[in-house]
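User: quick one, fold this
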Amino acid sequence: MKAIRRFTVRTVLPEQLQPLHELALNLRWSWHPETRELFRSVDPEVWAAVGEDPVRLLGEVPAARLSALAADRRFLRRLGDLADDLRDYLTGPRWYQSALPPGDGAGPLPAAIAYFSPEYGIAAALPQYSGGLGILAGDHLKAASDLGVPIIGVGLFYRHGYFRQSLSRDGWQQERYPLLDPDELAVSLLREPDGSPCRVDLALPAGRSLAAHIWKAQVGRVPLLLLDSDIEANGPAERNVTDRLYGGGSEHRLMQEILLGIGGVRAVRSYCRLTGHAAPEVFHTNEGHAGFLGLERIRELVGADEKPAEGVAAPDEPPLDFGAALEAVRAGTLFTTHTPVPAGIDRFDRDLVARHFSGDAALPGVPVEQVLALGAESWTGGDPKLFNMAAMGLRLAQRANGVSTLHGEVSRAMFNGLWPGFDAAEVPITSVTNGVHAPTWIDPAVVRLGAGEIGLERAEDAMTIGEAKRWTGLERIGNADIWELRRTLRAQLVEEARSRVRASWRQRGAGEAELGWVATALDPDVLTIGFARRVPSYKRLTLMLRDQERLRSLLLHPTRPVQIVVAGKAHPADDGGKRLIQQLVAFADDHAVRHRIVFLPDYDMAMATHLYPGCDVWLNNPLRPLEACGTSGMKAALNGCLNLSILDGWWDEWYDGQNGWAIPTADSAGLGRLDPESAEAEKRDDIEAAALYDLIEHQVAARFYDRGADGLPHRWIAMVRHTLVTLGPKVLAGRMVREYVERLYAPAANARRELAAAEPGGPSYPGARELAEWKARVRQAWPAVRVEHVEADGPDEAQELGATLALRVQVSLGPLQPTDVEVQVVSGRVDESDGISDAVAIALKPAGGPDLDGRRRYEGSLELSRTGPFGYTVRVLPAHPLLASPAELGLISLPPEAVGMDAGVLR
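Assistant:
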């Protein structure tokens, strides 16, 4: 029989044990070893049975055990100390509270930042993530908490989370979606003062509505608000909006993203109203899924149906128009892109979006035409029938970034069409390389080893803040200590992997009598390579299988054997990815090698905490440049694991020849974008697989098994030590969040303040109104802006290094004034087609008023500072002190080709 109602019966804790609830409901326990150990000591068997989840532990521990603990003075002292420690952590000043204003000290740091993401990987006990994007978001919140950054996280609460993975007998991925009961999780319902659940309501087409409750997960100091549509106020279709992460069809996904963006802003406003938390000055959109948040903030500012929440002051003030509201919103918005390929961007049918933002579903004051324009693929080659979420995210944000240096370059090229006329290098997308939350991902044994050398307090600071000076001293750790630690961690992984392999084979239908071999699967003294990640085709799970005989020879080498631990999930709708898993599993099932290579199903955070520390080498072989960052290798490095990777993502940035190995790539331009079924792609994979085998055999395994007289691999240990000392401070989420604060959050808050600042009694957002009017005027006048003539003193033939050219340029500005533009000379090395690279721009100065034809003259000098082919051109750009980038409007005026480059190229 099946129950028709489900609810959770909570344990009533004795009064002395009440602080256990406080500790369990703050997810800091997930990265605080002392708190986890306290919960383990409550009942070790139950702790293991509930997957190390404190909330479930407190629901299942026997009452007799609780009574005994309530009388255990030693336990109560530990409990009191940890409760006090948590309160100190939540209330005491941290890095952010003592940080000086960045740059020129233009203003205080933001009072609060709202961070929106479709998924969050905080802990295995709160399964609201699918892969790297969610884990990154979780690490961002944890690092912000450790640093004291006042972030409010916003996401959705998925009743079925992401799927759990198992394998059929023939190795085909199978999915199941267990129902999550929020009463069994470390979340609490946000309530109004009268005790009723706080609710967010959105209008839908055809007179329907979508309502959501708000669950709050406390991530250290950071509140994470998760919107849940599975409530009685909704009809069946609306209740299912938040059913699964990345599930459903196009309209289902669109409704999820509308709820995340628009509903998320409303949830933040309610949370601030109910708790007194400072209102966010900056909104951070983590990938395009939450991009609609900008539309809701525009609605707030255009005098919509309720008093605006961003300080648009007195009700008798004239409301902002759409253009001014857009500028105010853009100034305080940051957009982070995580995809290096257009196929990774959410795109919806334009008519579907129009239906959800017009008629009954319209946002007051936000015309549907303006909504559609924000997501239009207006560039050459764009599809006019589609609405592009990344395009909207970029148009609604004055600041944007990729997630590694290489990904920043890729993103500038990919989105170049939004800034026509500008070279990709000038597209206003910067980069902040991702980081990982060290206390979550470093094994406690690694922390103890480091703390033994530099002290526990300094070790904790080093993991939190991420400055190189705090990591000095680790180079003194002895070879024997490092090697003993690595062997211990490898043995732990072997034990964990055997347990998971046995469980997987039992799920696949094997009897106990068939599984005797599992006891000898893997070896704690064999070089161990790890490969674990999502399984889209570009990550090339099966590259290692290109030459199966070569792989077998590596696995079964008589003196230098290798073993490989593999894990990963394919998207439920990705049959191609499932076939890759099936191919890998078929190879790993072979009796001859199954003790040397294993596939572990259901890759999640709990498995990862064993994988990263236990592997000697972390393998990553994506198609370059399709890996935006690839943070799994960072987590491995923090545990002394060496990376073996294609030069992509973060590895392209920080590989130094001593912290691992770079897999050579095929040298054909654009190979990374080939159809995977093409002959060129097959050839590329053959070349790169052969390079991988050679590296493993002749460099990786050779160095691992090269032992000194004392039995230690000294050169290997030196690489491990170098990795810890040099990569440790770089790969931290603490370093990443500090960069976001200093380079993006603080400038965005200051830009917003500049647009909002008002004289007493004057209208709010005067700067936004003025900037919007200026942009409209410039856009209308720009067709009349022309470079009429360029001349330089000096012959066109070869010039000497250090010579100076005097330039005179005549431009027509139409109705614009010189203060509206900047005239620049752009110079640099030129190629055979006269394209300028390594360009340097210098502003020219106006010389006198307009001539009789209304043209204006600009003058300046150009120093010939490099040898070889050299060239220059001249351009006119809009200029305004409130622009974050000269390219912001996407407007540029260049000389006619015959005048520009022909007159300007010098050889």
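User: anything notable?
Assistant: Residues 304-308, 310-315, 668-672, 898-907 have pLDDT under 50 and may be disordered.
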